[in-house]
Amino acid sequence: AKTEDFAIQAPAGVFVETVTSVTHYTDRLFRFRMTRPAEFRFRSGEFAMIGLMVGDKPVYRAYSIASPAWDEELEFFSIKVPDGPLTSHLQAIKPGDKVLMRKKPTGTLVLDALVPGRRLYMFSTGTGIAPFASLIRDPETYEKFEEVILTHTCRDVAELKYGFDLVDEIRNHEFLNEIVGDKLRHYATVTREDYPFKGRVTDLMVNGKFFADLGLPPLDPAIDRGMICGSTAMLKDTKEILEAAGLTEGANNKPAEFVIERAFVG
Ligand code: A2P
After folding, report:
1. Topology of the domain covering 2-102
2. Are 23 and 30 in contact (CB under 8 A)?
3. Domain boundaries, the chain
4. ipTM for the complex?
5. Is the CB of 155 under 6 A from ligand 1?
6. Which of left, alpha, beta for 13 (phi over 0: left; psi -120 to 50: alpha)?
7. Residue 200 in contact with ligand 1 by CB distance below 6 A
8. Which of 9, 134, 202, 207 is the most buried (most CB within 10 A)?
């Protein structure tokens, strides 16, 4: 009877999906997966508006879809904000619960928004890794690029686990592992705990440690491409570094050397 009540309350023109699994990583981060409507199409790297009924009102927030376009389910990686209008409720979801999703996905972190290149850098902090979780599991990424470097900076090591699990999943996946081969590299750093890779990726790029650790040359606008997803300050700092190296920002209607997702919040 509960589900029917919910269906009656749910706003028209919105998907109502069922949670299939929830994984809590830390007291600030969790992942959930839910059913995918058969008619819902998106490009890996895009985001959707995800919501819950809070009282009698739907509350939505932009969420990057963390699963690749071929996956039969949808995955999301979320922060938990104690008094967040949506996440304070979303963090309590359990398998079987219903989640709302608006019908149209959108976003700039798509392969089509980049001009062809050889190496793709994905820069993320915190839950900003979500769109890249989608893209690193999409075979098209490896058709377009010879090398993919996923960077993830978090406060502490526990917050990196989602990223390490993703890479393990690819390695253990029958067909993906074959497609990805040794093209994917994962560079994870923390800022508030001791760890061999310590510091913001931005600082490590500026002081050269990032390139030295990976054995890569400095950024080259002729072959290097970038995608950026993180806090507002991180977007700005990373954009400055890429622009100083001669890369220009692109968009869906004007592909260029790097793209930024500005819809992302925390
Ligand atoms: P820091 O600990 O130095 O603030 P948050 O959890 O607050 O969203 O932060 C996620 C990670 O992003 C943290 O490791 C944080 O480092 C880092 N960070 C914050 N601002 C920037 C920035 N401007 N450039 C790069 N990384 C940043």
Report:
1. Elongation Factor Tu (Ef-tu); domain 3 (2.40.30)
2. yes
3. 2-102, 111-260
4. 0.98
5. yes
6. left
7. yes
8. 134
Measured between its terminal Cα atoms, the distance across the chain in Å is 36
Whether residue 202 has its Cβ less than 6 Å from ligand 1: yes
Q: How far is CA 14 from CA 31, 101, 150, in A?
A: 22, 6, 33
Q: How many CA atoms lie within 13 A of 151 on its CB side?
A: 29
**CATH of span 111-260:** 3.40.50.80
Tell me how far apart the 2 most distant CA atoms of the chain are, in Å: 61
Is 231 near ligand 1, meaning CB less than 6 Å away? yes
Cβ atoms within 10 Å of 112's Cβ, excluding its own = 14
Other CB atoms within 10 Å distance of the CB of residue 183? 16
pLDDT tens digits for the chain (266 residues)? Answer: 455 566 556 778 899 999 999 999 999 999 999 999 999 999 999 999 999 999 989 999 999 999 999 999 999 999 999 999 999 999 999 999 999 999 999 999 999 999 999 999 999 999 999 999 999 999 999 999 999 999 999 999 999 999 999 999 999 999 999 999 999 999 999 999 999 999 999 999 999 999 999 999 999 999 999 999 999 999 999 999 999 999 999 999 999 999 999 886 65
